[in-house]
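FAQ: What does the model actually see?

It sees only this:
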Amino acid sequence: MFAFSPYFRLLQSKVVNSIGELWCDFPSDYKYYLQIAEDHRGDYHYGIDQISFCRIIYQYIFRGIKQGGSTIEQQLVRTITGHYEPTLKRKLMEQLLAISIARKFNKDQIVSAYVQVAYLGTKISGVFELAKCLGLDVFRDSSKLSIELAIRLKYPEPSKHSVMWYKKYQRRKSHIVKLAKMQRSNLVCWAKS
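And it is asked to produce this:
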């Protein structure tokens, strides 16, 4: 029903046009760290992570716990459309749009758009503003900057730093670096066998 509504078509057009306009050939570090931190099954789904979705439904029904679980595609759709209301209707629309853009664009195009529009903190939207804030170069410092971006997706940069935010920042950074090391060591082991 949603997919045939004029409103859905309008949102779809808005998202598709935005992704097309935002294409930039970013270094692979952005996709790598974004997937490690936000969507580790990103290469195996088309807009919706069914395993994560089932886990979220289970947690909500049986434990009353609300969780995230949105894919990069879903996060991009939510950011471009500006719809954040916690309703089932919005979530279903977001999922349908995520599937539609996953069919139309490859993961590099989706990541390229998302890293440019993602909310990363007070007065920081996207990787170019984050790079400016941190005194880094988007292309030359891509490894360091992609980790900083992944951290701020979960813990946006506050207007004033607190000890609590800094502790969360450090834990998240350690977690992402640890995941990257584990993934690289697994690839090395796999390549040797």
